[in-house]
Amino acid sequence: MYAPVSVVIPCFRCSDTIDRAVESVFNQRLRPQEVILVEDCSGDKTLEKLYEVKERYPDGWIKVIALNINSGPGTARNKGWEMAQQEYVAFLDADDSWHPKKIEVQYGWMRSNPSSMITGHKCQVVSFSTNFEEGEVDGVRSDDIKAQRVTLFSLLLRNKFQTPSVMVRRSVGVRMVEGKRYSEDYYTWLKIIYSEGEAHYLDYPLAFLHKSAYGEGGLSGSLWSLEKGELDTYIRCYKDGAINGLVLVFLLCFSYLKYLRRVGVVFLRKAAIKWVS
Questions:
Q1: pTM of this prediction?
Q2: DSSP conformational letter for 111
Q3: H or E element at residue 99
Q4: Domain extents for the chain?
Q5: What is the rounded CA–CA span in Å between residue 42 and residue 239?
Q6: pLDDT tens for residues 159-187?
Q7: CA of 160: how far to CAs of 20, 74, 165, 245, in Å?
Q8: Do 75 and 178 contact (CB within 8 A), yes or no?
Q9: ∠ CA 208-89-152, rounded to 5°
């Protein structure tokens, strides 16, 4: 049985992880109608790998888009979003995975709550290769889920919508800023709230991150670039008229304090690893 959901996965040098990501989508108890893999001009054998993955699944279930220029995950997600044919669009990163009940629970809740334009949920960081544990969501049905309304200010203070947790209605008109490589997703979720409608958070671990939120490899390893991306996001919100100057100054200072904390956490983590070794 299929749900009217398109899954968009940006792919950049992800040959080692894409199998796990796609398998977690295929193993959904309520399977999404289509998966769109967007290859962001990796310059290696990633595109070849994506076509190999496509051949292992039912005809037409996976679509592969190859970009000619490396443009970052925001642009890649936009291309997949444009191709999406289903009523809902869910996002997954190539190095993460989903709980088998993610689509069943999240899509079911959104279908029952038409005022919500975007939802996210808890993500669990895992340091092992298995895809999931049943845990808290075993036996949970979508009509049992309690969702928290997410306001603009609460999301400005803390981005609870990690990308592998997000599902939106395809009717949403907002898209990611082309070429913006850091915090492009965060800005999009904020803009949906202040220009499109309600947002909600489901407090259940329906996605799994196979690396820490920051301080490890890939995009998450560049703390200062991430910080500049977040500062740019707040400035864009100000220019959009969503926040005033006083709120902007507060957010810029608050963000920088969070950045200093992250630097300290990463420093201590690396020091501990070095001391143990």
A1: 0.89
A2: H
A3: none
A4: 2-210, 214-277
A5: 33
A6: 999 999 999 999 999 999 988 989 999 99
A7: 24, 18, 9, 24
A8: yes
A9: 80
User: What 3-state DSSP class applies to 42?
Assistant: coil
Q: What is 183-228 written as a DSSP string?
A: SHHHHHHHHHHHHT-EEEEEEEEEEEESS-SSSSSGGGG-HHHHHH
**pLDDT tens track for 261-272:** 888 887 777 777
d(CA 22, CA 139): 23
CA atoms within 13 A of residue 118's CA, in its CB half-sphere: 29
Fold of 2-210: Spore Coat Polysaccharide Biosynthesis Protein SpsA; Chain A (3.90.550)
CA dist 115 and 145 (Å) reads: 16
For 68, which DSSP code? S
Residue-level length of the chain: 277
Which SS3 state, helix, strand or coil, does residue 122 take? strand
